[in-house]
Amino acid sequence: MHILLIHQAFAALDEPGGTRHHEIAQYLVKRGHCVTIIASPVSYLTGKSGDQIAAEEQQAGIRILRAYTYSALHRSFVHRIFSFLSFMVSSFITGYKVKNVDLVWGTSPPIFQSLTAWALARIKGTPFLLEIRDLWPAFAIAVGVLRQPQLIAASEWLEKFLYQHADQVVVNSPGFIDHVRDHGAKNVVLIPNGADTRMFDPHAPGDIGHHSIDIPGKFIALYAGAHGLSNDLGVLLQAAAILKNRSEIFFVLLGDGKDKPALQKQAQDLALPNLKFLPPLPKNEMPAALAAADACIAILKPIPIYGTVYPNKVFDYMAAGKPVLLAMQGVIREVVEAAGAGLVIPPGDPPALAEGITYLAEHQDEGFTMGTRGRSYVKKYFDRPDQAEKFARLIDDLVDFDKV
Predict the structure, then answer these.
(1) Residues 295-320: tens digit of each pLDDT
(2) Where are the domains of the chain?
């Protein structure tokens, strides 16, 4: 079977960013399928163009085609829309030339690339599988990025159109199921976010990206991921300011995003000797970085709709055997609490975050136990090979049904 994935934000294991799709694609190739991915040469995490990336490449049997993308992801909302639309058009042209396709797989966000996937599926006469990784445009409206009534109406129309015309909808969080069904999706399956526990060794020596940090004997509280509007990292900086006099506690923020320069300025204004920003790492270097941490932080703005998400980073933290400081509510809280994998604190509350970090610094044996429980829970319920097998069976059934 030949599977065509349209994914502007695709990241391979040797690139920064979420690698769910690369991991699943590798599994599909091992099962004998052919996978072609049309991706952007512009990093969705950093906004930087990878000019060194060839227009076509092969990685572990996966064919990756890079389609032109206007490089403006970290500028204004309007420029981001131009970036999305440019990839929508160029990926359609690139995808039209791909022959002998049996299934077209679209993923959102950004939602525009899923319109390309739908169009290619209809032209090629194949099933259209739509994967929902967050609820766009609902998230953009909730944070105030999308305000214009005409754009909101057009975005919501596109969302419903895609849900209604998908042969199969896959969501990566149970919190999305009611929303997509209420907006027209018919066949909905949950294949949740998770992690490959085989990638992580809790007992391995730590190495935060070969960066020299003078923190021997420190308790390291690590945040790894996007530095964007939704991530509420200003709260983390305020918690670090509260703990300035706790010299044994050190914060590391690993990653990139549109808000990183402003956050660095805020940290400078707060004069934080206990905090350091580091650039993003490829996924294959993240296990060593997480091994260097004593606790890991996951945080989002206190907006109700964010309670629907299953953040990738939480599963990576748990797979690495680290206690989680979770400043979120909703369905991911249920996972952390069921696993006994960390502390849940109110989002948007710097003193509560500082208190949680202090507790884990003072009770490191308990934190170790939390990490061990979290890793076991991910292995049992959210291990990537199990998810990949479920995905493989789903597409087998979808293509077989279409041929009947």
Answers:
(1) 999 999 999 999 999 999 999 999 99
(2) 2-194+383-403, 197-381
